[in-house]
Design goal:
It is a single chain. By secondary structure, the chain is of the alpha/beta class. The protein has 12 helices and 8 strands. The protein has a 5-stranded parallel sheet with strand order 5-4-6-7-8, covered by helices on one side. It is elongated and about 70 Å long.
Amino acid sequence: MFKHFYKKMNNIKNSFSIKDLENLTGIKAHTIRIWEKRYNLLEPKRTDTNIRYYDLESFQKLLNVSYLNNNGYKISKIATIEEQEIPQLVREIATDSDVESHAINAFKLAMLNFDQALFYKTYESLLKEKDFEAIFYDIFIPLLNETGILWQTNTITPAHEHFISMLIRQKTLLNTEKTAFNQVNKSTKTFVLYLPENEIHELGLMFINHQLINKGYHSIFLGQSVPIESLVDLLNYYDDVTFISYFTIKPHKEGLLKYLNDFEQLIIKTPKTKLWILGQMLSTINTDELPNGIEAFETIKSLTQTL
């Protein structure tokens, strides 16, 4: 699937360990070995020092084999199909519900090879069936979650993560600008979006900003690494303010409750002033015991559904 996207590939990431394949495809290394030895579905290569590795073609083939297997084809049957016919068979049985998984795989390949053209082509293909909101929820969020895991397991480097994040950031900014140009504020409520000091992971917050503007709210996006003290001035301009922040790696769990208590004392002076928070750092505290005026959300969707 997406084979027509694979033609323009460079050689930046062209060898994979079996653990890399497991991390990238979700297929257990044990299963890959069985498919390899019993059915000759993959042919690992060896370095000059006799270390086994798999090339990009093997990775692509494994994605297609896994797809056929998940759609009722036995591995013994797949092993009899001519190799060049496998991608065509995948295309023939693909349904609309499969778009997400194939797009994520294409974006992974774009990331692995720093291939902007593949990213753009995949994105444009998705736009034929989905709007930007659906693409972000259905494709980008799962992709970013997987990217975080791939980075933690050393399957990709920080450069790969920055590359794919920057491309998603570009699309988010472009769609936010289009939305803001055509939208009229329908509410006196103001949202102020910011990240705490030393926090730089802003993609989720940027998408929330897009959703707020799309729903007609006045949204002020301050971005990365904003000290609490810098937020006080906003209260001189707006009476009904909800701050939104995303805690991915900061503040550290040891200082998170202190940060929230400091925010309450310094910022939350009236019932109309609130702080909405989300992000993986919230798993380190009991969110049922948050200071007054502060509410936690598990996901971006759960937050935007309250608007």
